[in-house]
Amino acid sequence: MSQAIQSKQYEKINAFLVFFIICGCQIGVGIHGFQRVIYKDAKQDAWLSVVLSFILAHIVVFVMFKTLEKFDNLDIYGIQREVFGKILGSFLNFVYVIYCTFAFFAVLKNYIEVVNTWVFPYVNPQFIAIAILLLIVYAVTAGFRVVIGISFFSFFFLLWIPPLLIYPLYFTNINYLLPIMEDIIGILKGAYSMSFTIVGFEILNIVYPYIKDKEKKSAEKYAHFGLLFTFFIYIIIMLITLMYFSGPQLERVIWATLTIFNLIEFPFVERIEIITICAWLLIILPNLCLYLWAAYRGVSSVYNLEIKRFTWIFISIIFIITFFIKTRTQINTMNNYFGKIAFIVVFIYPFILFIFASIKKRRKKGTGDTS
Amino acid sequence: MFNNKKDKKNEQSTNNQQELQEPTKHYTKSELKQTLDTRTKEEFVNLIKDKVSSPADFIVKNINDEITIIYIENLIEVQSLNDNIISTLQSISEPTPQLIKEKLSLAQVDISNKLDVIIYELIGGAALIHTKENADIVVAKISSYQSRSLSAPENESQVIGTQVGFNENLTTNISLIRRFIKSPNLCNENFEVGEDTVTSISLLYLKGTASEEQVNTIRQRIESLDVSGLIDSAILAELIDDSTKTVFPQMLLTERPDRFCDGLLSGKIGIMMNGSSMGIVTPIAFIEFFHSKEDQNLRWQIGTMLRLLRFSAIIASVFLTPIYVAALTYHYEIISHTLIVPLSESRAIVPFPPILEALFLELIIELLREAGSRLPTKVGQTVGIVGGIVIGTAAVDAGITSNILIIFVALSALASFTTPNYVMANIIRFLRFPIIILAGIWGFLGIMIAVCFLLIHLLRLSSLGAPYLSPLYPLRLKDLPNSLIRLPLSNISRQAVNTRKGDDESTNQENNEKVSE
Amino acid sequence: MIKRRVLLYYLCIFLLLFGCADPKILERISLAVLIGYDVESADKVTATVALRSVNQELQSIVSIASQTDETSKGTRIKASLDSTKKIVAGQARVILLGSKLAEAGITQALHTTKMNSEMSSGLYFAIVDGEAGPLIERKYENISDIGQHIFYLLEHNIEEQYTVSSTLHETVRDSYSPFIDLALPLIVQDEDDVHISGLAIFNGDKMVGKLVGNEPFYVVLVKEKYNAGSIQVIIPGAPLKKLSNDIPDQLAIAIDSIFSNRKVKLVNKDTPEFELDIKVEGRVLEIHSSITTEDFNVMEILEKEVEKEFKKEIDKIIKKTQELNSDILGFGEVYKANVGTKNVDKKKWKELYPKIKVNANITVELLRNGVFD
């Protein structure tokens, strides 16, 4: 158990913060335009795809916790080394770190793309990237508590979205939702497409050892609550989008949520989407910080690296990659790949890991009994 | 900087008679540590005179052949010297220090043969009584403190509540506090800090209520201070802060004894310093800087309303001008069609971009405020009115600024003054400038970067190890009724979780149970 | 360590100096408030823009720019060459399309507008009966700012539900949807005045006809939930003759504060046949002076007559749209919702629409009258 995280007492967090971590991680850039992708598969039943994918997410979280509970104070990196042995385990850890880096980059790049398209078409994306990356360095180097603190506050920053959605209700047409359950295969496909948007809860794999020991039991409950909350947000947005746009229109709207916000007017301010996009920085911040943190945990399980040094190296790499992915087409291709990888890593792999972990534990127990 | 102040003070106490002094040696406290041996009268007088740099108000008085009194004229109470000491001493025939001590009808009489002790007592305002052939010196403390009488707190005035503020005398201040808290648990630890100023510092806390760990931390921080002079508690607060890189203060300075005692009762630690009318309260959360004692003296509905008003005023104060700059420079789309005509008309002949215009106006407001606060009260008001009206109108007429921005800037200045704490109010005004610049560069995205930076920064801070943003993060449900809002007193727990003793684990555990309910 | 920190400061300063976004300072730009598109020749479009900017005398002035090019952005670039200020479209409120352009197809104009992230989804579309250019360019005696004028004209009428809502979002939504056809407000220039004359109705993206007079009211009544506005209906006076001899043959009655609820049901998939239930509640605001509405029977008769009149008008409109094959009332959406997307597509619905049967059932309830009987 050399891999067990002996995190300091003050770095341990309360279980209820898991709720905020889940919300902070799941709601990111995907929410700006996930509707179109799912609509293409599932048509007017896209909301059923959302329901389906969240049911799957709940199952995955359940399995994740079952796996984590088997190894008391280990995160996924420790578990992988424990279960698959040193070489294969380290390789898988490496893959997981790459996944986290990929996720980090996808979130960052998508956000910058939105800013570039809607708000500042002439600002060099690299400048925005530097600014955001510096913010992240400042946050992550302060330690885990600060990272969780950001996701805590960003949750409250999310709460103004549901009230805003009352306005577009005026333009909705319930007929666009009918008929229900037309194409089951399409719905399943849609649920698969949803994976890019709803990933984020896999961060539990890394956060788990940081939860206070006494409260580890209740953490699962809060994780499910967190999923329910994001489900609530996603389903509302999805339903409103489906009723707000006509089908062929939705297929051509790239950022449907922002397009909805576009119409909202107040007596003194219009074009809420511009404010929303800028304000979204605070909402993607926990996303980025937690992915960076996850990558750091993975690297630090192999090399003894200081968080400060790692963060600088990490953001330098990210910054260099931003030079290579520039056009919308490249970003879309990246998103497609990421969606596929995310589906495997987040939705399929936990089951595999669970099976192997159970076998390993049983065998160990078995040998323990005979000796 | 400290040395200048120190000199000034020394000059005052020695009546500015520098020219009479011979260039004497500079003594440090440790060098004075020696035990006196038996000396004759002359030897003793010369020794002391040399050690205290032979000031002009140094008085040597011979009662008779055997008894000599040494004191510094300006530091003692002459009445007491005449009535209690001289008359008594004259009646004593065979004086020994013991006898004198018994005979003197004074509360504070000591006997000492330590040179450093008697020197510092002499400077502190005691009369030294030397008896022939004796190494022991009688120290009769009859110091006279010139202190102003207690008056209403000027910087933290409030309508309802105690109308008394601290003054510069530590003894008076401690007695004020003792009047509020008559608990035997009130601990008062004394420290003397500063090589030259030898400032007395009192560390006050309620035993059993304040966290032992935090008391130890603060004790250690004070003890490890190594400064030559310490003039005000604001400086002390900066010296013992958690982080000095930030603009945010992590200790509350207050001149209100009720606020101070309120802090003590909720488990905070108070520090009083001689010569300063400000007490330090620590640990303190960010939110508490925006609390006024008055919120608690009013009914809770009104108190809540006032607090919410204040918090929204602060947010407006920080973000109003930046939003103006951002909207007019980059995001003309978001301005509603009813506003866009007046806005663009008001800026039609302004030659600068909004960012320069805003910085210029903010600077004017800051100048007015600074000039007003440096001048005597009566002149200060005139400056404010003349500056505000004349410059404001002229600037608009000359087309340097738009009148809508003037409203915004004036509003945000006004809003910043709602902060009850002067130090924090300054910071609120200071914060605006970098945010305006960011807004002028990246519009709303710039403002958002500033918001994120501020949030991370505040999350990183701690006050005496306690999180700065509590009770919001970490969430302390028990403290929430008295944070952004103020609920009825029955809902407010007496003691803030931040300062609760015992380890963090147990307090959070309790919280968590509350959450899961 | 300190060196690194200094480096960081330099990085920040560098960021601030060179990362600066492109400013669009309010008084240094020309805001396009009203944009009008006309067809010039086969593939050329003329854009006429009402620009608002401020002059040195602190007044906002309106200027007109007109250019012809293949794309609307191309016209904007050309217009920019004439303008002293940068032209931006983020505050555009209304887009007018000439009727010739509308007859040729509006998809391109819609797509251009929608693709530009500057444009608000809330701007209004309207069709000009005639050409948009001259309407915008004309110097009116009573209208100082034509852009503002047309915007308020549309906004207020849409709010009062005198005409259908035609925001960019709704226009795009309906034009992209295969099962509904567009109806846009029709604006006409009449000497020195501009007013809404009715509705332009579309088949696909081509304008095929117009509805004038009272007809837009009934379109709104069928399409939307009504909670504003008023209507004047003319009913035959005959049934009320017994009350008083003064009653004329044609009785005008004004109903106001109208609330309506409508429901469309598909009753027969094959024909297809629809059941249209509309429930209207309103208050009598104006009626012939000889009728006192105190009488229960009178009210009932009035309600009956108004119902008849409503039904007649609605049937007329449906028939007219069927002739033009323009499903502006959105029966196709209901049909699709019932039979599923697989069984109907745009082409099939276009074939079906002229054949559909709609049974309109209208209930009118006159809740109250004014303060004087």
List the helices and strands and how they pair.
The complex is a heterotrimer of chains A (371), B (517) and C (373).
Chain A: H1 17-26, H2 34-42, H3 46-70, H4 76-119, H5 125-140, H6 144-158, H7 161-164, H8 184-193, H9 195-198, H10 204-207, H11 216-244, H12 247-252, H13 256-263, H14 272-300, H15 307-322, H16 328-370
Helix pairs in contact in A: 1-6, 1-11, 1-14, 2-3, 2-8, 3-8, 3-11, 3-16, 4-5, 4-14, 4-15, 4-16, 5-14, 5-15, 6-14, 13-14
Chain B: H1 2-13, H2 41-51, E1 58-62, E2 67-72, H3 78-91, H4 97-103, E3 109-112, H5 115-124, E4 126-131, E5 137-141, H6 170-180, E6 186-193, E7 199-206, H7 212-223, H8 233-239, E8 252-254, H9 257-265, E9 269-273, E10 279-282, H10 293-297, H11 300-329, H12 337-346, H13 354-374, H14 377-398, H15 403-416, H16 422-460, E11 462-463, E12 466-467, H17 504-516
Antiparallel strand pairs in B: 1-2, 2-4, 3-5, 4-5, 6-7, 7-9, 8-10, 9-10, 11-12
Chain C: H1 2-18, E1 29-41, E2 44-54, E3 60-69, H2 72-82, E4 86-88, E5 94-98, H3 99-104, H4 107-115, E6 124-128, H5 132-137, H6 146-159, H7 168-176, E7 183-190, E8 193-203, E9 206-212, H8 215-223, E10 230-236, E11 250-268, E12 273-286, H9 296-324, H10 331-339, H11 346-352, E13 357-368
Parallel strand pairs in C: 1-4, 1-5, 5-6, 6-7, 12-13
Antiparallel strand pairs in C: 1-2, 2-3, 7-8, 8-9, 10-11, 11-12
Helix pairs in contact in C: 4-7, 8-9
Structural description of this entry:
The complex is a heterotrimer of chains A (371), B (517) and C (373). Chain A is mainly alpha-helical and 371 residues long. Chain A has one domain (15-360): Amino acid/polyamine transporter I (Up-down Bundle). Chain A is built from 16 helices and no strands. In chain A, helix 2 (34-42) crosses helix 3 and helix 4 runs antiparallel to helix 14. The model of chain A is unreliable at 1-7 (pLDDT under 50). Chain B has three domains: 17-141, no CATH class; 170-284, no CATH class; 296-460, no CATH class. Helix content of chain B is 48%, strand content 11%. Chain B has helices spanning 2-13, 41-51, 78-91, 97-103, 115-124, 170-180, 212-223, 233-239, 257-265, 293-297, 300-329, 337-346, 354-374, 377-398, 403-416, 422-460, 504-516, and strands at 58-62, 67-72, 109-112, 126-131, 137-141, 186-193, 199-206, 252-254, 269-273, 279-282, 462-463, 466-467. In chain B, strand 1 (58-62) and strand 2 form a beta hairpin. In chain B, 39% of the residues are buried. The model of chain B is unreliable at 1-23 and 501-517 (pLDDT under 50). Chain C has 373 residues and is an alpha/beta fold. Chain C has two domains: 24-213; 215-373, GMP Synthetase, Chain A, domain 3 (2-Layer Sandwich). Chain C contains eleven helices and 13 strands. In chain C, the strands form two sheets. In chain C, strands 1, 2, 3, 4, 5, 6, 7, 8 and 9 form a nine-stranded mixed beta sheet that branches. In chain C, strands 10-11-12-13 form a four-stranded mixed beta sheet, with helices on both faces. In chain C, helix 4 packs across helix 7. Chain C is globular, with a radius of gyration of 26 Å. The A-B interface holds A 9-10, 14-16, 115, 119-120, 123, 128, 131-132, 135, 138-139, 142, 145-146, 149-150, 152-153, 212, 214-215, 218, 265-272, 274-275, 278-279, 281-282, 285 and B 330-331, 333-339, 442-445, 447-449, 451-453, 455-457, 459-460, 469, 472-475, 503-505, 508-509, 511-512, 515-516. Chain A: This is Spore gernimation protein. Chain A: Belongs to the amino acid-polyamine-organocation (APC) superfamily. Spore germination protein (SGP) (TC 2.A.3.9) family. Chain A: The chain crosses the membrane at residues 12-34, 46-65, 86-107, 119-140, 147-170, 190-211, 223-245, 274-295, 307-325, 337-357. Chain A: Its main location: membrane. Chain A: It is found in: Membrane.
